From TrEMBL:
A GO term for molecular function: metal ion binding
Database matches in CDD domains: M48C_Oma1_like (cd07332)
The UniProt record lists the keyword Iron-sulfur: no
Family affiliation: Belongs to the peptidase M48 family.
Taxonomic superkingdom: Bacteria
Residue spans crossing the bilayer: 20-42
GO biological process, one term: proteolysis involved in protein catabolic process
Cofactor(s) essential for the protein: Zn(2+)
Annotated protein name in UniProt: M48 family metalloprotease
Domain Peptidase M48, residue spans: 83-252
Keyword entries, A-Z: Hydrolase, Membrane, Metal-binding, Metalloprotease, Protease, Transmembrane, Transmembrane helix, Zinc
GO cellular component annotations of the record: membrane
Cofactor remark: Binds 1 zinc ion per subunit.
Origin species: Cyanobacterium aponinum 0216
């Protein structure tokens, strides 16, 4: 008499493609939400970062961008100008700071807001300016980034992103030195909203300084011509296209009824 073993049915059938897709999207959605939440909370807490921490980060960056500070007449004039601008700033903790301009004698056309109240201005940018008013506008713009802590927010978001990616792939060495921090700052591009807010801040400072906003748009018009001629400047790597910014500035000037008068000649390069 032969004996047949009973056939045991699989009560846990393999999931079909639809179930796998559902699980995948649930996991992906949850992960995306958690990452978004981390970035949101980080941006809410950015105003609590002590100035001492900012200064330490800034010193690491400055060591790479300008290892030897220029103490020339140009550097002194830039700092005198920013000191005068400081007297016009609103008396708030995140705005009223002791700003220092670091002048770098290189042909790079750019200006940068560095953590620790430092504003880097390159010689190449000064050569593109036609008036002192344009320079005040740019310095006011960079101070606007400090006022909204855009400089620290962008740096922190980039490092946080690198930390998340590094955690996923198992490499927690997100940066090895101040060189990496400097590269992040130099290549950071602010959002359109951040740039517009900083532009408005700079425009208000310009109006307070001269009593009018003459020269406010001239620098961006120069950049627009160079962009159209396909002359790529480093300014474009860390700032959006000037076209929309010009339109936005004109709207603000019209809305606030600012006066546009003849700008002053720029003599700061006569070292």
């Amino acid at each position: 008499m032969s004996f047949k073993s009973p056939i045991i049915e699989n009560k846990n059938p393999e999931p079909n493609k639809r179930q796998l897709l559902t699980i995948f999207f649930l996991f992906g959605g949850t992960l995306t939400f958690l990452i978004f939440l981390i970035f949101y909370l980080f941006n809410q807490l950015i105003y609590l970062v002590p100035l001492e921490v900012e200064e330490k980060i800034g010193n690491l960056i400055i060591e790479q961008i300008a290892p030897e500070k220029e103490n020339s007449n140009i550097s002194q004039q830039l700092n005198v100008l920013v000191d005068e601008i400081e007297t016009l700033l609103p008396n708030k903790n995140n705005v009223k700071r002791n700003y220092e301009v670091i002048y770098v004698p290189e042909n790079t056309v750019n200006a940068l807001a560095i953590p620790g109240n430092k504003i880097v201005v390159y010689e190449g940018l000064l050569k593109e300016l036609k008036s002192e008013n344009e320079l005040v506008m740019i310095l006011g713009h960079e101070i606007g980034h400090f006022a909204h802590r855009d400089h620290l927010r962008s740096l922190g978001n980039m490092l946080l992103f690198k930390l998340i990616i590094s955690s996923i792939i198992g490499d927690l060495d997100i940066f090895s030195s101040g060189v990496d921090l400097a590269n992040v700052i130099v290549n950071t591009q602010y959002s359109q909203r951040q740039e517009m807010k900083a532009d408005e801040f700079g425009l208000d400072i310009l109006n307070k300084y001269y009593g009018h906003v003459g020269g406010a748009i001239a620098f961006f018009e120069t950049l627009e011509k160079k962009e159209n001629n396909s002359n790529k400047l480093s300014f474009f790597s860390s700032h959006p296209s000037p076209q929309n910014r010009i339109k936005n500035l004109r709207k603000i000037i019209e809305k606030k009824d600012y006066i546009e008068s003849q700008p002053q000649e720029l003599n700061i390069l006569q070292d």
